[in-house]
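Here is one chain, start to finish.
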Amino acid sequence: MSSTQFWVGALVPPFIKWANPYLKKFFKLSEFDSATKKRVSSKQYPSYFGLLYGLWITALLSTGFAVLMWFMISGPAFFPDKSYAVLVFLGLINMIGVWLIFGALLDLIFWQISSENFRDYVKFRQIKSGWGFDINQQIAALVKIGIVYYITSLPLTLYLLIS
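Its structure:
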């Protein structure tokens, strides 16, 4: 295990647990009611739902990594006067933004095309992870966070492109 994996694993879950009540309050996210929690936790789900949920998460993560790879591979062709480190940093900035905005759009698409039973499984997994909020509200919150993220990172992005 690398030190990066250790620190991400050690810091991210406590940060999410700490931020959860604040995000809930700020975005006015409503938790699943007790009847929904009881219903989704008492159901038996097919074993392949775990694989489908894993593919869902992989698709969300791959969007950001695709943007990062694009900046790393194609960036020198579009920005020939920039150093490679600047392009990687721009890729990292945009990777996070894509995770937020495009990830929210993918969530919306996947949520709409999912069966009711698979939606219950997703609710179950989210309740189990401690993030048991309404999916549509989560999607709206992700888009808002993404817009704020891009607005706040725009000066840095422009500085890196202009300098």
